[in-house]
Specification:
Elements: E1 2-7, E2 15-16, H1 17-23, H2 30-38, E3 43-44, E4 47-48, E5 55-56, E6 61-64, E7 67-72
Parallel strand pairs: 1-7
Antiparallel strand pairs: 2-5, 3-4, 3-6, 6-7
Helix pairs in contact: 1-2
Length: about 70
């Protein structure tokens, strides 16, 4: 498994799930990111996540296709 530490931009409290998937290159487009979420391929803090606009905050852990992303402040 690949581990990624994602640091939020200064003064940002969160990043939306779809944006994170695109920024990290795990989804090629916004549409691809939506499909990944709809199909239940995303795990957030150990639970399947189906909310496309889920707000990810420091401490959250996202798992997708063998990649673990840890959100950092």
């Amino acid at each position: 498994m690949e581990n990624i530490l994602f640091t939020l931009k200064e003064k940002s409290e969160f990043i939306e799930l779809l944006k994170l998937l695109k920024i990290q290159g795990l989804a090629q487009t916004g549409g691809h990111a939506k499909i990944m979420v709809e199909e239940g391929l995303i795990i957030v803090n150990g639970e399947q996540e189906f909310r496309k606009r889920r707000k990810l905050r420091p401490g959250d852990k996202i798992e997708v296709e063998g990649v673990i992303i840890q959100i950092n402040a």
